[in-house]
UniProtKB/TrEMBL annotation, chain B:
Membrane topology, as annotated: Multi-pass membrane protein
Family membership: Belongs to the binding-protein-dependent transport system permease family.
PANTHER family: DIPEPTIDE TRANSPORT SYSTEM PERMEASE PROTEIN DPPB-RELATED
Signal peptide span: none
Principal location listed in the UniProt entry: membrane
Regions crossing the membrane: 9-26, 99-122, 134-162, 174-196, 235-261, 281-307
Keyword annotations: Cell membrane, Membrane, Transmembrane, Transmembrane helix, Transport
One MF annotation (Gene Ontology) recorded for this entry: dipeptide transmembrane transporter activity
The protein's name: Peptide ABC transporter
Entry-linked InterPro entries: BPD_transp_1_N, MetI-like, MetI-like_sf
Domain ABC transmembrane type-1: residue ranges: 95-300
CDD domains in the cross-refs: TM_PBP2
A Pfam family per the record: BPD_transp_1_N
């Protein structure tokens, strides 16, 4: 006798609405990740932020597939042309398509935001854990160094580092990442100090768990939410910082497109070609607003006092 | 008060020492041998050796550092490669321009941010609150150099209401000086106004829930009086502290604002120095900015001490 696996399937997953399951099942509804997601989804501005960020991420990822001209291709017959059917957002001072440069520029901005925050998290979080968990002279040294770096304004520090490292997008990302590191050290340190005092960490000590295990199992998961919120908000700051450095000529180098360098060129042609300045600025504003809204929404959703 | 200040200065000392090590270390990040760049194309070994001796590059790094600190303590931050002027003198010339810009920006930020924050807190959950929050978040998200460019386009180029760029010292023509600085100050003040608005709102929301505000209302005081005399006065402490701490943001923002409006201040000095590889000037600026931030921190603590009677009694 042949088995009939197809009809023997117990359920039809496609017909089940996961939201209904979460709402109906008290156990699932009480799970923190579901609660956070539900809260986040009800936060309209956070959803708007998510949509904005998602739009720019898709634009950056699928840039090579879009039917737009090469962002570096010049056309001396179409210099500083106003927006038209051929060039939706107009052309720049050497006839390059502004829309194309805007789309490809999203790659530089988003990459700078994510990579520099990645650098800041990669250095800042372990240092913050070391300072907060071990205290004593380890904390003393790390905290004093953090305070010293925090005393130098973020952008001045990034400019100085970018100047000494040399102008390029990679160096700008390193400069921004290193400049943002102290914020993560300080945040992580504070979180670790408060988590360390919790009963479950003391209990883990009492049953003889090793320090790396305690850090991995109990400390790290508990400090993650505020770090995630800070990372989202810092991406916004990093994108503005990259645009600022590129605007000053210390970031992405021509002819590669970046929103900051587009604005740098555009300021020389304000009266003749205002569209050159308008679009990159709007793009920076929208993506930064997106990350800020997303960060604010995440903060509200992850804040235990809000539940 | 004096004891309090002395204690704060003592706490800040290790930070100052670390900053000096960091600023000195910046030049070690430079790729290649700086002397080779200074020696010109011929690279005469005698000239190279002379330069090494002159800049003490043959000494061990700690000795170089101590010599640099000794110079810095006596106001000698080196000579600008571009202008041949002492760095301290250059900074002294440019700083007043940036201070004028920063003060005007701060006035803009306070005039917009604080009333908006109060209004937003008092009208929590209403359309006013929502609009104020949206405007504040937009203010934080807008790149100030782009805002500057757009304002030049609209106000200076299209409407011709204000000068597009430049700087007039107040001693020369006060009104023209203020007029020239209006747009840059507004641009620089926007993000700060947004920050101040959000903090004022948060501080006011905390205070408005307190018992003494409820008591003031129960006594039948006019709402305006309750808000301004009772609530705002108590919410003022964190706002004043924050305002002092915004100094760093002001200086950093000034770098771009001065670049756009061609203002010959501190920010323009750093950008010019970066492009001319005038590293002594970059180092000097980082050091002075960091020290300025520490001084503002101490002043913020002092303001907190003065404004908070409980702290004074301790």
């Amino acid at each position: 006798m042949m088995a009939q696996p197809a009809t023997a399937q117990p359920a039809t997953p496609a017909t089940i609405d996961p939201q209904t399951v979460v709402a109906d099942d008290p156990v699932l509804a009480a799970r923190p990740e579901n609660r956070v997601w539900k809260k986040f989804r009800s936060h309209k501005s956070a959803m708007l932020g998510g949509i904005l960020v998602g739009f720019f991420v898709l634009m950056a990822v699928f840039a090579p597939l879009l039917p737009i001209p090469d962002p570096t291709a010049t056309d001396w017959g179409a210099v500083r042309k106003a927006p038209s059917a051929a060039h939706w957002l107009g052309t720049d001072e050497i006839g390059r398509d502004v829309l194309s440069r805007l789309v490809w520029g999203a790659r530089a901005s988003l990459m700078a935001g994510v990579v520099s925050v990645g650098i800041a998290v990669a250095f800042g979080v372990p240092l913050g854990i070391l300072a907060g968990y071990f205290g004593g002279w380890t904390d003393g040294i790390i905290s004093r160094c953090t305070e010293a770096l925090l005393a130098v304004p973020f952008l001045i520090l990034a400019i100085a580092l970018a100047a000494f490292l040399g102008p390029s997008l990679t160096n700008a990302m390193i400069a921004i990442g290193l400049s943002a590191t102290p914020v993560f050290v300080r945040l992580t340190r504070g979180q670790v100090i408060s988590v360390k005092a919790e009963d479950y960490v003391e209990g883990a000590h009492a049953i003889g768990l090793s320090t790396p295990k305690i850090l991995r199992r109990y400390v790290f998961p508990n400090i993650l939410p505020p770090v995630l919120v800070q990372a989202t908000l810092t991406i916004a700051t990093a994108i503005i910082a990259e645009a600022s450095l590129s605007f000053l000529g210390l970031g992405q180098q021509p002819p590669a497109p970046s929103w900051g360098s587009m604005l740098n060129t555009a300021k020389n042609f304000l009266a003749q070609a205002p569209w050159m300045a308008m679009w990159p600025g709007i793009a920076i504003f929208l993506v930064v607003l997106g990350f800020n809204l997303l960060g604010d929404g995440l903060r509200d959703a992850l804040d235990p006092r809000e539940h | 008060m004096l004891n309090f200040l002395l204690r704060r200065v003592a706490i800040a000392l290790p930070t100052v020492i670390l900053i000096s090590i960091f600023v000195f270390g910046l030049q070690k990040l430079l790729p290649g041998d700086p002397v080779l760049a200074m020696a010109g194309e011929e690279r005469d070994p005698e000239v190279i050796e002379f330069l090494r001796e002159k800049y003490r590059l043959n000494d061990p790094v700690p000795v170089q550092y101590l010599a640099w600190v000794k110079g810095a303590l006596t106001g000698d931050l080196g000579i600008s490669l571009r202008t041949n002027q002492p760095v301290t003198e250059l900074i002294g010339q440019k700083l007043p321009v940036t201070i004028q810009l920063a003060v005007m920006a701060l006035i803009f930020a306070m005039v917009i941010g604080i009333p908006a924050g109060i209004l937003s807190a008092v009208k929590k959950g209403t359309v006013t609150d929502y609009v104020a929050n949206v405007v504040a978040l937009s203010g934080l998200s807008i790149p100030n150099f782009w805002l500057g460019i757009m304002l030049i386009l609209l106000v200076a180029v299209n409407w011709q209401l204000l000068p597009a760029s430049g700087y007039v010292p107040p001693s020369e023509d006060l009104w023209l000086s203020i007029k020239t600085m209006l747009m840059p100050a507004f641009v620089l003040g926007t993000a700060l106004a947004a920050t101040l608005m959000r903090h004022t709102r948060s501080a006011m929301l905390g205070v408005l829930k307190s018992d003494y505000v409820r008591t003031a209302r129960a006594k039948g005081l006019a709402e305006r009086r309750v808000i301004l005399r009772h609530a705002f006065r108590n919410a003022l402490t964190p706002i004043v502290t924050l305002t002092a701490l915004l100094f760093g943001e002001l200086i950093a923002g000034a770098v771009l604002t001065e670049q756009i409006f061609t203002i010959p201040g501190f920010g323009k000095l750093v950008v010019d120095a970066v492009f001319n590889r005038d590293y002594a000037v970059v180092q000097g600026i980082v050091l002075v900015t960091a020290l300025g931030f520490i001084v503002m921190n101490i002043l913020a603590d002092a303001a907190y001490f003065v404004l908070n009677p409980r702290l004074r009694k301790q």
